[in-house]
Write a structure and sequence with these properties.
The structure holds two protein chains of two kinds.
Chain A (H helix, E strand, L loop, with lengths): L4 H17 L12 E2 L4 H4 L7 E2 L3 E6 L3 H4 L2 H9 L8 E6 L6 H6 L7 E5 L3 H13 L3 E8 L4 H13 L3 E6 L17 E8 L14 E9 L5 E7 L9 E8 L5 H8 L1
Parallel strand pairs in A: 3-7, 3-8, 4-5, 4-6, 6-7
Antiparallel strand pairs in A: 1-2, 8-9, 9-10, 10-11
Helix pairs in contact in A: 6-7
Chain B lengths: L8 H5 L8 H7 L10 H15 L5 E5 L3 E5 L10 H14 L7 E2 L3 H10 L4 E2 L5 H5 L11 H9 L5 H6 L2 H8 L1 H10 L17 E10 L2 H21 L2 E12 L4 E12 L2 H8 L12 E13 L19 H12 L4 E6 L9 E4 L23 E13 L6 E6 L2 E14 L17 E8 L4 E7 L9 E7 L1
Parallel strand pairs in B: 3-4
Antiparallel strand pairs in B: 1-2, 5-8, 6-7, 6-8, 9-10, 11-12, 11-16, 12-13, 13-14, 14-15, 15-16
Classes of the chains: A alpha/beta, B alpha+beta.
Chain lengths: 261, 471
């Protein structure tokens, strides 16, 4: 009996949903391994309830931070703290200005971190791919300007073959022209900006660092925006504390500052 | 006065000799063809020959003005024996138009004597040096000319005569040098030779009947030779962390490649893979006839034990170490590192880099960065100047301008006063102008900066503000 259009359509839908959830080729459902943020307001937006391991994620700063990659690097380092227990970390640089004591202060142990300074963009991507394929590597960070579709697919393949998670930190060369949005092969794409810290009352100094985190794209999940703070108790499993859920819409905080200035 | 520096066999047959006055020689043989002596050129040719000879043994020492010493311990079997090896070497030299004599002996001194005064291509069985050298003239002992002349006047012309004399008397009359030379020749004393590279018994060699030049052949050759050497390393329980691969071309030049491993190893595959990307830089010229591979930094590498507990875990030798090797060989060794704490309060000196698998103690570090002193995520190699406005001395700035943009400081922490390490500075360059007061500040957007004021207000020099790090 020929299948009615309705049933074939629903079969197709089910297949697509299964593909999006990551059902293996042999039909074996492999539960995607994730690192959760420890707060349902974030985790519910992400497929599997957290940041998917064995895939790569793109992070970009805003404004000048796209060149300096300071706040975004701090966020990514903090995000990867739970991975440091699983294996080695490799950080691929283009410009050699990463300061290990700063990372150690965020909880990323320097003795687990191998830094590699690549000479150009292609080399940085090749090193990332090589490192992602290596058994024993838990996370690979790469500071690159752009990941095109082909390079992104290669990174994804490398992640799937091993157990590593990739963190692409978009960083533009100083004075370089901004490139268009890319990274459609990434599992998630985030935009990171610093947010004013809020120390305890009476404390004159700086509070724990905060970030305004925007999940711009998420395969199989929903976008969102939050303000997160580095937890002070250094709980290695959940490095962030959710300060505010900014909802599932685009923010325009720049306006606020413009008005204030 | 001009004298003959060197002569060829034809001139020798006419009765000319080295050291003869040039005018006398010209008078005896008016048709004599002479050229200016060129000792520097000779030395350069000799050193080129040293490099050429590396195809026979990695340990080659130049013996100016006209000699070469090869340490062939453990390599002669590659040619089927010492005398075959010597024949091959002399044959190839002759083909290049170099007249040479050679000998193989248990000591450099004996080989020297035999090559110059003995029968050509003598191979001395080990322990027979004294017997064979006995009949040679004492000029074979590398003595000072005056000593040799003195000995000759006394009728001591053969090495055997000298060796039979009481040693104490010999030393008293002719000096210790004679005894030393005698002992060196008779393999009774060690002699330190200056090899162009350290001698290593870890050496493999592949010769081809037909010269090779295609990239596939080079790759196959490098794999085959790695397999040979690694097989030996494995059977003897050793591993090496440096390998030098040399392609010896038909024209006598050699193309060299070298790789390093972060942990000693002996895996053919790993070594061949590290050499593979470099092979395209090899210019085979008219062809490559010999490939050699030498291993250095060889150390005992026990068979790895595989215990039940370790199954499932990934050892560094399997994963990270090969990755580090690949990266270090492709990008350069300085481009792959781990950061270690160094006991210095200056931020730019608080981090030292070490190769990822070097022991931490090698850098003298092993400390940890102080947890109570937060540091930025990005540190500039050179602090960038900023224009800053502080309300009162010793206060953090209220706002500052960096890269043309004004930033209003919302919160700040500090100062953390860091003095220059005056003991590393010449006198006069220390003092209050070199004190840095660091502040961590946060602007209105929450972006964090690490800035410092160099110098103090009220001094002779107006303090300057710098941005040293971000995040």
């Amino acid at each position: 009996m020929p299948a009615s259009p309705r049933t074939s359509l629903s079969t197709l839908r089910a297949e697509i949903a299964a593909l999006e959830r990551g059902v293996g080729e042999r039909g074996v459902r492999s539960a995607p391994e994730v690192i959760g943020f420890g707060d349902p307001r974030i985790d519910a937006r992400l497929p599997g309830g957290g940041l998917a391991l064995k895939s790569w994620h793109a992070f970009a700063g805003e404004g000048l931070d796209l060149e300096t990659a300071a706040a975004s690097a701090a966020f990514v380092a903090r995000l990867a703290v739970p991975l440091a227990r699983r294996g080695e970390l490799v950080w691929v640089l283009r410009r050699d200005d990463l300061h290990a004591p700063g990372l150690a202060g965020l909880g990323l142990p320097a003795e687990r971190l191998i830094q590699v300074c690549a000479r150009d963009e292609d080399e940085a991507l090749a090193v990332m791919e090589d490192a992602l394929r290596t058994p024993g590597v838990a996370a690979v960070f790469g500071e690159v300007d752009e990941v095109d579709l082909v390079a992104g697919r290669r990174l994804q393949l490398a992640c799937e073959q091993s157990l590593a998670t990739g963190f692409v930190l978009r960083r533009r060369p100083y004075g370089g022209a901004a490139k268009g949005e890319s990274g459609s092969a990434a599992a998630t794409r985030w935009s990171i900006a610093p947010a004013p810290s809020d120390p305890a009352a009476g404390d004159p100094g700086l509070g724990p660092p905060r970030w305004r985190v925007q999940l711009e794209r998420c395969r199989g999940g929903r976008t969102g925006a939050w303000i997160m703070e580095a937890r002070e108790d250094n709980d290695a499993a959940h490095p962030f504390r959710l300060v505010a859920d900014l909802g599932d819409h685009d923010l325009a905080p720049e306006e606020r500052f413009r008005l204030a200035g | 006065m001009r004298r003959l520096y060197s002569i060829d066999p034809a001139a020798a047959a006419l009765g000319l000799y080295v050291g003869q006055k040039a005018t006398d020689a010209m008078a005896l043989v008016p048709e004599l063809g002479a050229a200016e002596a060129d000792p520097d050129g000779d030395l350069a040719s000799l050193s080129a020959l040293v490099h050429w000879c590396v195809r026979y043994s990695p340990a080659v020492a130049a013996d100016p003005p006209d000699g070469l010493l090869l340490d062939i311990t453990g390599v002669a079997h590659l040619w089927g024996g010492e005398s075959e090896m010597l024949d091959d070497l002399l044959l190839r030299l002759a083909r290049q138009g170099i007249a040479a004599r050679g000998a193989v002996a248990g000591s450099a001194g004996a080989a020297w004597a035999l090559a110059r005064c003995g029968d050509d291509r003598t191979v001395v069985p080990s322990g027979a040096e004294a017997q064979i050298l006995a009949s040679l003239p004492i000029t074979g002992l590398r003595l000072e000319p005056e000593t040799a002349a003195q000995l000759a006047r006394l009728g001591l012309v053969r090495i055997g005569q000298l060796a039979s004399l009481p040693r104490a008397q010999l030393a008293r009359r002719f000096g210790q040098a004679v005894l030393t030379r005698l002992d060196q020749a008779l393999a009774r004393a060690e002699e330190a030779l200056v090899f162009s590279r350290p001698p290593t018994p870890w050496f493999a060699r592949l010769a081809f009947a037909e010269p090779i030049s295609s990239p596939e052949d080079l790759a196959r050759a490098s794999r085959d030779i790695a397999q040979r050497l690694c097989g030996r390393l494995l059977t003897e329980g050793q591993g090496a962390s440096r390998f030098e691969l040399a392609f010896h071309r038909l024209d006598g030049r050699a193309e060299r490649l070298s790789i390093g491993l972060s942990l000693p190893g002996r895996s053919t595959g790993a070594i061949a893979r590290l050499f593979a990307p470099m092979l395209e830089t090899v210019d085979p010229g008219f062809g490559i006839e010999v490939v050699t591979l030498a291993a250095a930094a060889v150390e005992t590498l026990p068979e790895r034990e595989i215990s039940l507990e370790s199954i499932g875990e990934i050892a560094a030798e399997d994963g990270i170490a090969p990755l580090v090797d690949r990266l270090a060989n492709r990008l350069g060794e300085g481009r792959v590192w781990r950061a270690d704490a160094y006991p210095s309060h200056l931020p730019e000196r608080a981090v030292v880099r070490r190769p990822p698998f070097a022991p931490a103690a090698a850098t003298g570090a092993g400390e940890e960065w102080a947890k109570d002193r937060p540091r930025p995520v990005r540190l500039f190699a050179r602090p960038e100047p900023i224009e800053a406005m502080a309300r009162v001395p010793d206060d953090p700035p209220v706002f500052f301008r960096w890269r043309g943009q004004l930033r209003r400081v919302r919160r700040s922490e500090g100062p953390e006063r860091l003095a220059e390490e005056w003991w590393r500075r010449p006198p006069g360059e220390t003092g209050p102008a070199h004190v840095r007061d660091y502040y961590r500040v946060e602007d209105e957007t929450g972006a964090r900066y690490w800035l410092f004021r160099a110098g103090l207000y009220g001094g002779e020099v107006t303090p300057k503000w710098w941005l040293h790090g971000l995040g």
